[in-house]
Amino acid sequence: MKAVTWQGADKVSTETVDDPTIQEPTDAIIEVTSSGVCGSDLHLISVLAPYMNEGDIMGHEPMGRVVEAGAASGLKKGDRVVIPFNISCGHCWMCQHSLYSQCETTQVKEKESGASLLGFSSLYGSVPGGQAEYLRVPHADFGAIKVGDELPDNRYVFLSDVLPTAWQGVKYADVGEGDTIAVYGLGPIGQMGARMARHMGARVFGIDPVPERREMAARHGIEVFEGGEDSIGEIRELTEGRGPDAVLDAVGMEAHGSPVGGAIQAAAGLLPDAAAQKVMETAGVDRLNALHDAIDLVRRGGTISISGVYGGAASPMPLLTLFDKQIQMRMGQCNVKKWISDLLPLVEDPSDPLGVDDLITHRVSLDEAPEAYRKFRDKDDHCIKVVIEPQAS
């Protein structure tokens, strides 16, 4: 089969690889019909490259149809399913407490990491990902989300990651009717998080330096800002001088405007993998500009919710300010299955209240995927969200 594979720092290519096979009775094999490209995929070809191996299959946002079902998978050939990016068993202590991203059955204990993830480096199990013609789905008996046949893929595929990650971020921000929230970063997660917060009744300020991202958010009633001190001042004025009740950081480790962090990341990338991993695991390598701005902006007694991925073990934080402002912080990998019952009715609603029909900017074949990665990385050609369609000719 064809698959998008990691071939080195800043390099992916479409290659022919072995077809996946059933390995456990709870497995299923799906023919992938849609698979998103995520900002986290860009981390894998840059900051997290030391944890990747040549030939690793990329992608953690897939959906498709079952072509082979393990005896204990609870699925049958032809079922249409969305596959969460985190692999969870559904029955361990963590899963029983809806902490699916911490599943004790699939934890990558040798890396002291949480649940295994599809297509996401040795930190999370080096499990082959879903930017491919076919995908083996471990623990399909619990993880696979069955969906109907009436609606197109774009209504469902984001249940794999984007929608639940954004929903959890907004829930962790604890905003509702009459509250205010600023969203840093209007990529796919930030776009959906901003729309969700507005759907919940909050006033939403979206912050991003890229004009087309701001334009997309504005179409959905978001008040948009370019970022920087002027934007912080404007948002404070709009919130009676206090700042918003919450801030959602949907940027993560590669924020713009963080030259020192950028230099550290670049230097780490020049080291051999073992040395680079050691730096990642002991040093502060994140670009923290967006997070520090969030700490500055949020009102006293407010909440910061972090959906953007961070990777530095010792990234410096302004604890005096956090303590003095009495700021609450919540974060973590999304517990995808926890939120599906909330989200499925919204994506199937004919009125499309979250605007999922207005997110994909580029649909590409597997052969076109490497160029789409470049466009996404460089924010070229108004690229905000790429979906790969492996069965496209």
Automatic annotation (TrEMBL):
Necessary cofactors: Zn(2+)
InterPro entries documented for this protein: ADH-like_C, ADH-like_N, ADH_Zn_CS, GroES-like_sf, NAD(P)-bd_dom_sf
GO-annotated molecular function: oxidoreductase activity; zinc ion binding
Start and end residues of each Alcohol dehydrogenase-like C-terminal domain: 188-254
Keyword flag Oxidoreductase: yes
Domain Alcohol dehydrogenase-like N-terminal: 25-141
Keyword field: Metal-binding, Oxidoreductase, Zinc
Similarity remark: Belongs to the zinc-containing alcohol dehydrogenase family.
Name under which the protein is recorded: Glutathione-dependent formaldehyde dehydrogenase
